Amino acid sequence: METHIYLDHAATTPVKREVLEAMLPYFSEKFGNPSSVYSIGRESRKALDEAREQVANAIGAQPKEIYFTSGGSESDNWALKGVAYANKSKGNHIITSSIEHHAIHNACKYLENDGFEVTYLPVDLNGLISIDDLKEAIRPTTTLISIMFANNEIGTIQPIKEIGKFAREKGICFHTDAVQAMGNITINVDDLNIDLLSLSAHKFYGPKGIGALYIRKNVKITSFIQGGGQEKGRRAGTENVAGIVGLGKAIELAVQNLDSYNSKLLYLRDKLIKNVMERIPFVRLNGDSIKRLPGNANFSFDFIEGESLLLMLDMKGIAASSGSACSSGSLDPSHVLLAIGLSHETSHGSLRLTIGDDNTEEHIDYVLEVLSPIVERLREMSPLYEKVKRGEKDV
């Protein structure tokens, strides 16, 4: 069955019509290289400047503090490696959390192999770090704290302002991966004490392959790609003008429509969560019930396997994702779900439904209609579930 209900907006979003229309001229009549001095090159340079201003305005920054990248992963890698190497004479210690995106975790592993030391802060059952744990982890050699704004799997929103305030008091650089937060939460880098921030256009109805890194002025950071003088000499390579224009338009629309967008998502999300928890036994909501992204609902169902659940939902025309990494060929469950205390078995029975602008109440009603029978059908295949039903075993 062809998918007609898309509930995986945390993975990617469709490009809005207004965004596509803004981009199209830069593939054809406005194709000039922004480094060129003639008129069509100057047109592209002007478009870059406008997009840089749009991004800066969206997060309360200055245009000169915005650097365009290929996406969230590049921005994360640049922030971590750039600050780590630029400040190596001061220290070699980095603090992050145990539930970061792989772009952060794998960048940290890379740095560990090169002599840096990394502390991975634990999280509680809701996925929140402890400020006390953060304070205890500080060393004289700590040069960077990187904590994600909101988690991509369970939607938990971290106490960013408090983390940033502490980092500022200690004179430590603070980076946040805001890839999931941008377009869902009001962000002001000054108010939140953020020194570096990563974002990616395709998470808020912009194109794939384009992102940005906010770098507060006076932050000491190395260049990421050597070559020409693009991005003030810090990130070489001919700019992706059409993508940058799309990013600028998408982020402008996201900020303009934030309140109405969030109101809609919160209503649909809360209806979904309430009914799933009431209708289906042996289910857990993952992530904080209040401090969570407006469109995120992540459940773990006992006695089922997540990949089978995804396939059966797909047969019903519903696109969703699982907490486990089955799609990547790995048998390991999500590191995020393990970090909040779930067992391997429960982690494998997880389902992430992320709501977006194109979803309706009818979509949620349909999901609620088909989800219970699917879960029950899969559970009927579990010998353990049969024992629980007969009262021979406790959950």
The overall number of domains is: 2
Our estimate of the beta-strand percent is 5-15%
The CATH class of the largest domain, by name, is Alpha Beta
* Element-by-element helix/strand order: EHHEHEHEHEHEEEHHEEHEHHEHH
Number of helices: 13
Looking at CATH, the homologous superfamily of the largest domain is: Type I PLP-dependent aspartate aminotransferase-like (Major domain)
Number of strands: 12
Cα Rg = 22 Å
CATH topology of the largest domain: Aspartate Aminotransferase, domain 2
CATH architecture title of the largest domain: 3-Layer(aba) Sandwich
Question: Which stretches are poorly predicted, pLDDT < 50 over at least 5 residues?
Answer: 324-328
What general form does the structure show? globular
Helix % is 25-40%
Mean pLDDT: 93
**N-to-C CA distance:** 35 Å
The biggest beta sheet reads: 7 strands, mixed
Spatial strand sequence of the major β-sheet: 2-8-7-6-5-3-4
Helix/strand structural class: alpha/beta
